[in-house]
Amino acid sequence: MRNCLHSLSRALGWLLAGLMVTGLARAQVVASQSEFAQFEQMARDWVQPALASVTGPDGGGALRPEILFGSLDSRLKLTPCTHIEPYLPPGTRLWGRSRIGLRCLDGPVRWNVFLPVTVKAWGPGWVLKRPVPAGTVLVQDDAEMADMDWAEQPYAVLANPERWVGQQAAYALQPGQAIRQNMVRPVPAFGPGAQVRVSSVGPGFQVVVSGEALTAGIPGQSVRVRLNGGRIVTGTVRDGQTVDVRL
């Protein structure tokens, strides 16, 4: 009787070990190419409605989105999952090179993977026709309208010519470049060493003194000025001759 129980115990032990090995093997199933394709289609179905009405800033109007999907790493080991949720990772936006998260919410293992995507946004914008040296003031004839990918770079496209005509080239610009926010800067109202009026206004009084600008002055931005007595103050450029200082 004792021998029979011992044999039965050994048999149950081997059976349990076999079940554990089988379960472990199932938990480490490598997702097939067809399953990867399903994951990618799920991400595509999730992201396309979000881009259906993409509009450009700065009066750019409606843009035509184009989505290019990358691939998941074929070496990934993903367990079966009955509920997969696509999501946009924190700090990520669907613009240019990006990624979409896919996470398992109901399965033996709660896995989380990222699918690379490239989002293009096609629309009209201003493209330079000729080289523009750094510091040159741009005129509208320097550029022409063309179809471009707004999302190719993170800097905003300046679709409204009022935003760049009369501005300086921040660096040497080349033909074919789309005019973007980082490419232009305001023309200084005065340069370093210019004599300016420093105006301070308070309750019931106004003081105006003379000073020398220590840096270039751009309307609406800060500038440092040395007063005739040697004191250095910081104020806001009002125009080509005046700096406002708050007391």
Q: What do these coordinates show?
A:
The chain has 247 residues and is α+β, with helices and mostly antiparallel strands. The chain folds into three domains: 30-121, no CATH class; 122-185, Type Iii Antifreeze Protein Isoform Hplc 12 (Alpha-Beta Complex); 195-244, SH3 type barrels, CATH 2.30.30. Helices cover 17% and strands 35% of the residues. It contains two helices and 14 strands. The chain has helices at residues 2-27, 33-47; strands at residues 55-56, 61-62, 64-69, 83-87, 96-106, 112-128, 143-149, 168-169, 184-185, 195-202, 205-213, 222-227, 232-237, 242-244. The strands form four sheets. Strands 3, 4, 5, 6 and 7 form a five-stranded antiparallel sheet that branches. Strand 5 and strand 6 (112-128) form a beta hairpin. The chain is elongated. The termini are far apart. Mean pLDDT is 82; it is low at 1-30.
